[in-house]
Amino acid sequence: MFLTISTSGTAALPATDLGFLLHKHPDNAQRFSTSYGTAHVFYPEADAERCTAALLLEVDTVALVRRGKGKGKGKGRGGAPDAALAQYVNDRPYAASSLLAVALSGVFSSALRGVCNARPERAAAPLPLRIEIPALPARGGPELVRRLFEPLGWAVTVEPVALDTEFPQWGASRYVRLVLESEALTLAEALRHLYVLLPVLDDAKHYWVASDEVDKLLRAGEGWLPRHPEQKLITSRYLSRRWSLTRQAMERLELVRLAEADDSEVEAIDNAVEEETETEERPAPLAVQRREAIVAALSASGAARVLDLGCGQGQLVQELLRDVRFTEIVGVDVSMRALTIASRRLKLDRMGERQASRVQLFQGSLAYTDNRLKGYDAAVLSEVVEHLDLPRLPALEYAVFGHARPRTVLVTTPNVEYNVRWETLPAGHVRHGDHRFEWTREEFRAWAAAVAERYGYGTEFVPVGPDDPEVGPPTQMAVFHRNDTEKEAKAA
Ligand code: SAH
Hints:
492 residues, alpha/beta, c-terminal autoproteolytic domain of nucleoporin nup98, seven-stranded mixed β-sheet, 19 helices, elongated, binds S-adenosyl-L-homocysteine
């Protein structure tokens, strides 16, 4: 197993600095014993213009078998004879593979982490790199090799290796000769790409994949894996297709991706969502007017502890947090993705302790009763009811008005009559693909009256947005007050 790393340089920036970056002096040939054999590091060429470091791994197949970490295939004694033989006679000694990746991380561990006290500025900077691997097992062929390396900024030359050069008619083996070239990457990035992608291409890990492999993968994949188009294939193969680990890694990568997304990206998501949600109006978008109306109604009710049910991406929670009258704000949504974006928006991880103690986000479905929702002053259902199928609505009504029973409940929903005023909305269409229904003012009032009657609440209706004399406002809001509190208030 063999790979070379070359760089070029000038008198001012000599190529031999590669020796500092790899923490291996170009004048010495060095040996390192690893658990699977001996790794040699030497420099076939080393001057100011060009410097090449070679890593050669001599695998001790006997040691490999003795360690008992062969990948489940015939553990020697008791196995089929040819399986036992395959442990000794296989391609391990010749081909780059997961073993080479392990050697790479062992021999060049500081370089992999980008640590170089002697030349820190060079370790941090991209440099011209050429990496050659003469025999790389590549399950998926040259095409997959390209799909893995090209998105990372490598110019890729990949040639299938003939099964036997004397018999070209036998066709290609599963090996390729790979040359990677780039001027845009640091050495640490390059090594981390190899560390992850060599075993992915080999697709036959020689050792048992334990759960700490997820950590190793995410660490080595930092900065590139979360955005790699083949992220799923890489993750799944790296983790030897252990589905539970793969899923765990994919979820963590998604969180990393969202955490890396800067505020402008969150804004962009917002804008897309808001555009999707409704056609906007100048000057204040309807979503803003709706939040203002909700905050005003909450303040009027004197609520301090508030539930935002179906909080989506957390815009209202953020607004409520700015107002000290709201001492406790809880956002609930069924969508984990929405909650992740909400926590990113609120910067929950960077929030001071006092602020953090006022806010909570959790996942839950409003179609089920939930004791965590009990004991609050008010609950908001902003643009949520129309996302439930009508037959499921009574379950939500019971969960909120019958079980959680806050003193005040605010419900907003589109007024379908107003849709004729949206110039861009084709006649007869709802405002959002996920709306299961949209109500007229009369339908909404009838629904609210029935719920209020059943659960002992009184209702008021508030228009949100311009109240058109003919078709009414774009958004309609019902404010429910629990009847027994009115009695309590009178008694007090
Ligand atoms: N309240 C926000 C988001 C409205 S979009 C706003 O006014 O902008 C509707 C939200 O309700 C979505 O985030 C969706 O995930 C959530 N939702 C839909 N059905 C739900 C259910 N059964 N339980 C909890 N949340 C639900």
